[in-house]
């Protein structure tokens, strides 16, 4: 029995952890309890030294002193303030009116607002609950299919997990030992590509099942000019002018500048032009813009400006993710103050929720450090490596098995638990197989997004169920989520087939040719004998370099 435990302690420890989690024991305590319990067993079996646990204080202090994790409370606070100050309501109302005449317009609005909320809040619960409270009753009132409406809202809310500034990308970067900025750059295109796939699905439903996604009736369209027109043409003209100004700026910008810097600067010029024209039109009373154009500009530009303030400074390299999160939190407070919706009650709610979520993350991280200390001590990482490195198919076989594993674990574990338990075990193996860890992290982040959408355990489905009207059955929500889970799986396949979707936004690593590296050793100090070692032609003796090093070492020893 003892020999069996010694040979199989690592798999027993991992299976015990999974059992604790399936029972429903808190994640942080499951990790810590397993780490300490099996650590004591390892000491009794002679696999571990008792001094191993003296490393625990340093590991826990390393969690507390990790500045990267400070971005989590900042981005969480920013998202909560924006969500509770009414930004989601204004965005859904405005974009819903903009797309209202189009069949499926409200569903398009939900997807686009979900992407914008993801880029400003990064919190799934806030996005799903806000859109569920605001959009779901309106969509049902105008005849939308209950499954389509619930599926669109739940899936759009989960975009907050893959579109920067996502909290899971911060944790993923920390666990992979990579830059949060690089993780954000890598996830930028896949996040909006997934948004495009959602829009394509809505378009397909509107085309083949028009009764499921009707257009808004004329009496529900509130933006009308005195002439009876919708005012969309004025918005189109404003958009063309803004795009033209951005194009001229991009043409004259320094061609040697990095691509991400060019994109951020160009888009900032475009939205700045639209906002300035709208402000001038209102202050000067020019009446050149329709009410639709003004409303869209004043509702969309402030959150877009906040997005560029946060993500733009991170992408360009002006600010770290922690500094960007601090600026975002400050910007959210300023926006709530300008909208006259900032109150002590709002601040208290935001800080209370932020403190709870941050404490939740830190406790799980501390528990994972205790677990990993014992697991690595009993060579658990070697067991996992032998298990996965010998899979047939090399990189492809490894990716297939890992993605299937994460997909099925997501039925029972959320993305925090997967990030802290599974990723540290998989990352070293992926690195040994030559897989780019930024691409690997983004791939798993898209896969883990399904943890919010899995019937019957997806948290996004629970969030939506808590705010949905009684006539929306739980099975409607579950069946509505299935097509979007399939779309997310399709996105995983696209990332495997086209890794450039992630790597195109990353800077190329500078390669150093070691054959051209020269080490210059300074000449010896002039001690009166410098000329003794030179020949008649003035060429230095071959032993000069060695004597110089010996002389320097001798002087250092004498100084001590």
User: Span from first to last CA?
Assistant: 57 Å
Gyration radius (Cα, Å) is: 29 Å
How confident overall, as mean pLDDT? 81
Listing every helix as H and every strand as E from the N terminus to the C terminus, the arrangement reads HHHHHHHHHHHHHHHHHHHHHHHH
Share of residues in strands = under 5%
Task: List unreliable stretches of 5+ residues.
Answer: 528-542, 555-560
Main β-sheet description: none
Q: Helix share of residues?
A: over 70%
Sheet/helix structural class:
mainly alpha
Tell me what the structure shows.
This protein has helices at 2-23, 27-44, 56-64, 71-84, 87-99, 105-120, 124-141, 146-157, 167-176, 180-208, 232-252, 259-284, 291-316, 321-338, 344-377, 380-389, 394-409, 415-421, 423-432, 437-448, 459-467, 474-497, 500-503, 544-559. It has 560 residues and is mainly α. Among the domains are: 2-67 and 363-452, no CATH class; 226-341. Helix 1 (2-23) runs antiparallel to helix 2 (27-44), helix 3 (56-64) runs antiparallel to helix 15 (344-377) and helix 7 runs antiparallel to helix 8.
